[in-house]
Amino acid sequence: MAPMVAIDDIELAAGRLRGQVLDTPCVESRTLSQIVGAQVFLKFENLQFTASFKERGACNKMTELAEAGLTTGAGHAEAPLRGVVAMSAGNHAQGVAYHAQRLGIPATIVMPRFTPGVKIERTRGFGANVVLFGDSLEAARGHAYELADRDGLSFVHPYDDDAVIAGQGTVALEMLEAVPDLDTLVVSVGGGGLIAGMAIAARARRPDIEIVGVQTARFPAMVNAIQGTQHPGGTSTIAEGIAVGTPGERNREIVSRLVDDLLLVDEGDIEQAVLMLLEIEKTLVEGAGAAGLAALIRHPERFRGKRVGLVLSGGNIDPLLLAAIIERGMVRAGRLARLQVGARDVPGVLARITTTVAEAGANIDEVHHQRAFTMLAAQNVDIELVLQTRGREHLAAVIDALHHAGFQAEEKR
């Protein structure tokens, strides 16, 4: 069965996008390569103006509509283009709003009522009419279709649309132009628009290339659909950009034919990948954008020795979520630790403890004295310390120093 989207469509999209979206860098990360044992090349789609690859598909779709000057809204005969409507709680909304404004096309974006205010305001900032409806993406989608019917608007689907798929496929064209001899492409998967477009483009350019999709274990819809598994889903994930309950029909068919493998990663893998990209590459990536690196962390043997291209698909992450990821990462690395120290409750004991910690080279974040809620004898005291250290070895050295000073001390998980 011939694909609905062909390489010619993706090349046409590349022409439409030229000068309208960035041809983002695709470069090797030597440090990540050493860590995971594969040669890792990063495609920085988080550097797009709206910080996501999503604007590629949105730009191609709306440029196509503007060139035709016609609406293809559900239930309407061809008529002059009245505008577009989209459903999204994030990156797709901003991509549609930005390129609609650039092309002079009226845009309505339906967002669930729970959408964070910063995303609503950013979308409005691109000139879109934002409609808040429903408590779920499904409810918002249904209302967007109603508006398309009622007002004769063209619905711009976030992933299950030929023009959108073709636009996303331009990522693979650019990657293979920058690094022609890649062995493997690793792509995050939600609804499947990105991996479907990239698979078509990559297979046309390099029929022998390996294509691997990555989903979070909390939203394994594409894995279940393609592999026939029944992995249970979750209700939330830090990779909200790929938290899709049902993959696109077009994309599912393309993935089943052209994609070699689909992998699942855990939330902890994604957190670690976000932090590694921030610390090592000095680049901010959202959970969905870090899923590819998470796959290399989770399945290192799968990619060892290969030349692997990863798409950093977006960089729109909530600052509070990022702060939590950083703090949790520091705890996992032992750079932020909680110690429980037992001692005799006598004058000067706290000073002795803090002096011991300081001489061991650690910094104290918090101190909490506990006299009542403890199993120690009445004349003893529990002191809880939150410390900044250089890592696990340094933490062990601090605990050892406390022991040598005559205190009971252990890490409190």
Jot down its keywords.
413 residues, alpha/beta, Rossmann fold, 3 domains, six-stranded mixed β-sheet, 16 helices, 44% helix, elongated
Report on the architecture of this protein:
With 413 residues, the protein is α/β, with parallel strands linked by helices. It has three domains: 7-52 and 165-328, 3-Layer(aba) Sandwich (Rossmann fold), CATH 3.40.50.1100; 54-155, Rossmann fold, CATH 3.40.50; 334-411, Alpha-Beta Plaits (2-Layer Sandwich), CATH 3.30.70.260. The protein contains 16 helices and 14 strands. It has helices at 7-17, 30-36, 54-68, 91-103, 117-125, 137-151, 162-178, 193-205, 221-227, 249-258, 267-280, 291-298, 300-303, 319-332, 349-359, 392-404, and strands at residues 26-28, 39-43, 84-87, 107-111, 129-132, 154-155, 184-188, 210-216, 261-265, 307-311, 336-344, 363-370, 380-388, 408-411. A six-stranded mixed sheet has the order 1-2-10-7-8-9, sandwiched between helices. A four-stranded parallel sheet has the order 5-4-3-6, with helices on both faces. β4 (107-111), α5 and β5 form a beta-alpha-beta unit. α8 (193-205) runs parallel beside α10. The chain is elongated. The N and C termini lie far apart (55 Å).
First CA to last CA: what distance?
55 Å
- Fraction of residues in helices? 40-55%
Structural class: alpha/beta
Which residues form runs of ≥5 with pLDDT under 50? 71-77
**Could you say which overall geometry the principal axes of the C-alpha atoms support?**
elongated
Please compute the radius of gyration using only Cα atoms: 25 Å
Give the biggest sheet: 6 strands, mixed
Counted by DSSP, the helix tally is 16
Q: Please name the CATH architecture of the largest domain.
A: 3-Layer(aba) Sandwich
Order of helices and strands: HEHEHEHEHEHEHEHEHHEHHHEHEHEEHE
The tally of strands reads: 14
Domain unit count? 3
Q: Order the strands across the largest sheet as they lie in space.
A: 1-2-10-7-8-9
Give the overall pLDDT as a whole number: 91
Proportion of β residues?
15-25%
Kindly identify the CATH topology of the largest domain: Rossmann fold
What is the CATH top level name of the largest domain? Alpha Beta
